[in-house]
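Changelog excerpt

This revision adds worked examples to the README so contributors can see how folded entries look when concatenated. The first example is reproduced verbatim below.
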Amino acid sequence: MPIGTHYSTSLNRQDRYAQIANGGANRERTPSMMTLNNNLTTNMTGLENLLTLLYTLMQQISGQTFNTPQQPEPQPAPQATPPLSDAQYDQQFRDNLLKNIGEIGDGWEFSDKLVELPNSALNQPETRQYRDTQGKRQQETVLERNNYWEVVQRGADRHLVMRETDNAGQAVKPSEALQDIFAHRENYQFDCATPMRLLNLKATLDTVGADDFDQHSGRLQLSSWYDQHDNSRFDGGFISSVRTAEAGTINVKDKTNNAGETALFDPGKGDKLTPGNVYYFDLPGDTSSERQGWNAVYLGTGNNGSHQFWSSSIGEVAVNFANNGWIASAGFDDYYLGAAVSAPNTDRLRSWDTTRG
């Protein structure tokens, strides 16, 4: 409503009230009040015209045009990051696994006890109940403990089991417990198989992120190739395949293999070396000692044509094979490369990567 109209209405209403109050005695004053109202209206109109003129002059002096502020365009809602393809999951996992190997040097000190927390033994071992994979109650003995992990004896097997709460009573997250093993390697010792499981878990964590990893991994348990997350139980979290050989079919420096040991690596049967896969160097005739074989991650070829592998407590090893026969002539001497391979499990990566999808 124009300002003049507002004042005119207000004054007329006051004048009307005054006439009613005085019984019409002041009717002769009405023309004077109307004249005042008209003058105000005229003055306000002139003021508006003056302001319009000043506004135009300001535009001309500044060379700018002052427009009425516009409302910002509505932004579309953020879209969820699309899931990766199998090939992308496979490559990210391999890249993360190889990156982690590059950061941990020789890995962890070797232990023939499978898993060990040095200098963390309990003064008095603790016996308690736990539920096995079938949900049955069993007995275990806690032997060693740090802030994130406990070494427990279950029958003949030793397991590194994640604690539910730390020393301060705070809930332990799987991602943090796993990070501690990599960040403080001096506090942990393993055989040559458990580090493969650790590398699988760490590459999975780095691929799917901490939130999804913590949601799906549960209370972690480590012991050689043991995998709590599927029915195979002993694939370390990888997709694994192996061919075995009949007794006496492989000879390395006059030592022959036993029945059930791995067959010799053979590209003619589809075997190939791929960086980020885990392979096995087998010592023929030995199926019981701590030297019976070495689990090793393939890194690629070196500048001199040798094949580069990594194994925990040893670090990077340059391997040459005799006459392309896949029997090591340098690096892992006395061993042959077996027909056993562990590759990324892209189905698990996709099923755990719920945030991305």
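The second example, added in the same revision:
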Amino acid sequence: MDTFNNIFDLAIIIGGAMILYYAVQMKTVDKIKVGVMIPPDVNVQKMKDRAGFINYSYPRHVAQGIALVLLGVTGIFCDLIGRGDIHVIIYGIALVVLLIGNLMIDKGKRKFY
């Protein structure tokens, strides 16, 4: 078991949990976290379609948060069973999927600013 990798896996799990928390908060309390859900330079009060933004981004951020939590848990599991090779392959695939997903989410969200 590699402690260094587990620290990163824990950070990934915490990041995924934070995205899930802010997505649920955005949907239930109507509070959009600047810097997490939208870029810091966007004024939340002057958004064109706030409800549309929430309806668009909520399921995508929930999926992203769940994917990150699962990635971190899988990484810890792979370290526990001693399969670092699988760990690297899963991280490579996840990185590509998350980057493409982020680009698609960001492109779609820009129409609501």
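Reviewer comment on example two: The chain has a mean pLDDT of 85. DSSP finds three helices and no strands in the chain.
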